[in-house]
Write a structure and sequence with these properties.
Elements (H helix, E strand, L loop, with lengths): L1 E7 L1 H5 L3 H10 L3 E9 L2 H7 L9 H8 L3 E9 L2 H9 L12 H5 L8 E3 L3 H14 L3
Bound molecules: adenosine-5'-diphosphate and magnesium ion.
The site of adenosine-5'-diphosphate (ADP) has 10 residues, from helix 4.
Length: 136
């Protein structure tokens, strides 16, 4: 079984879509292993999004991630990483397939509703940051 991290980002929490997003995931057969509500600060965002430091959208991304609560889920399923990315939809708004989580609950390119780990290495790193190292 493969493990991955899903983050329900601040715009989707503000919009009242926590339950809707978890329903999509559960209906697809994912098992929820851990779950918590947390608020990113700049340090946590910098660690989590270190690959994007220095990019044009970085400051906007960090401000958004720190703008409200997020919900983190440790998920398990066969082929969990690729399947979650499929259910999430693309980072480019015009490429999001109808019915995907970002098509349903994404506002724009930055405020796109959800994050999902993109590889086994990212999943291990991100699950560790969110569930083993943050105390909130
Ligand atoms: P994904 O979340 O699909 O893995 P990336 O890792 O490329 O996408 O980007 C991380 C996050 O940064 C995205 O989910 C989105 O919130 C934001 N983002 C990425 N690219 C841009 C961009 N060009 N303009 C604004 N925000 C962006
Ligand atoms: Mg990414």
């Amino acid at each position: 079984m493969q493990q991955t991290l899903l983050l329900i980002k601040p715009n989707a929490v503000r919009g009242g879509h926590i339950g809707d997003i978890i329903s999509i995931i559960e209906r697809d057969g994912f098992k929820v292993k851990k779950m918590k509500l947390l608020r990113f600060d700049e340090n946590l965002a910098a660690e989590f999004y270190r690959e994007h430091i220095g990019k044009s959208f970085y400051d906007k991304l960090v401000a958004f991630m720190c703008s409200g609560d997020s919900v983190a889920l440790h998920l398990e399923k066969e082929d969990a990483i690729a399947r979650l990315r499929e259910l999430m939809g693309d980072v480019e708004p015009e490429k999001r397939k109808p019915g995907t989580i970002r098509a349903l609950y994404g506002e724009d390119k930055t405020e796109n509703g959800v994050h999902g780990s993109d590889s086994v290495e990212s999943a291990v790193r991100e699950l560790n940051i969110i569930f083993n190292r943050t105390r909130i």
